[in-house]
Structures are given as C-alpha cells and as structure tokens.
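Supplementary Methods, section 5.1.

A reviewer requested that the exact input to the structure prediction be made available. We therefore reproduce it here, unchanged from the version used in the analyses.
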Amino acid sequence: MNQLAPKWEFVSDNVMGGVSSGCIADEIVGGCDATVLRGTVSLENNGGFIQMAFDLHQSGADVDASAWDGIEMDVYGDGGTYDVRLRTAQLTRPWQSFRADFVGEPHWQKVKIPFSSLVSHRVEAIFDPTCLRRIGILAIGRERDACVAVSNIGLYSAN
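The structure derived from this sequence is encoded token-by-token as follows.
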C-alpha cells in the first residue's frame, strides 16, 4: 500500500447555506491514532452533509494514481453508511464527484474502494486515475448524528 499522509479538513453544507454541524479531531479510537469526523447532518436549508477531506498534493496539483487499483483505509464507524468521494482534474463544479459508499462498522475494519467501483455523479466523465486531486469521506443525505474514524488511508494494488 502507498500510505498517504492527509491533512484532513472539515467541510459542511454551511458552504451552501445548510445547517449541518460537526468537526474533525485527532483521537485514539480502539487503541489506534485516528482522525475522527463527527457531527449532526441536517437536511434544513437544502443541506445534508458533513465531510472530512484532503488534497493529495498541497498545491492542489494532480497526482497520477494509475499504478494503483483503489483506495484502502482503516475505518471505525457507528454502523452508518458513509461516502468516499474522489475529485480529479476532470471535474469543474463542486457538486461533481466520483463516489462509492461503505458501512462504517463499530470496530476497526479495512475498507477497499476499487477505482473500478466509482460512480460518476453529475458529470459524464469516467474516473481517470491519472489526475486525482482530492479524497473526502462524508456523512450525507439523511438526518443523523454521525461518527467515523480513519486511522490509515492509502492507495492499494491488487497484485
């Protein structure tokens, strides 16, 4: 695995008028150092998400991930479903993404998201791993309290 060293940042639907709230924090979860996304997702004011995300390159430049087959991460959740969203140079609008979901089980688990499983959202493009820019993990789409921790994240190869 090609281990990534993310500088996670918190983003919520407040950027578009929503009222969801939350934060990220570095904590020890189940004996592991992790970054934790927690908060309350609200659908009021056309909102509905909280997110922790990072750019793969500090400058926002493209990263060629074509030698890899997908994203792998160690996750500890609350039993809820979360989204992984990838952004590439192909995307020009903030609502566009390539996405997959996973269940954040209430114990440490290894989650693999193959690039081949990504679904294009509000864009006609097919995911191009040669111009990867950003990775996000979201609680989205329904009202709830959310809590998910990530201890490791990287790129994996099936070989």
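The radius of gyration is 15 Å. These observations are discussed further in the main text.
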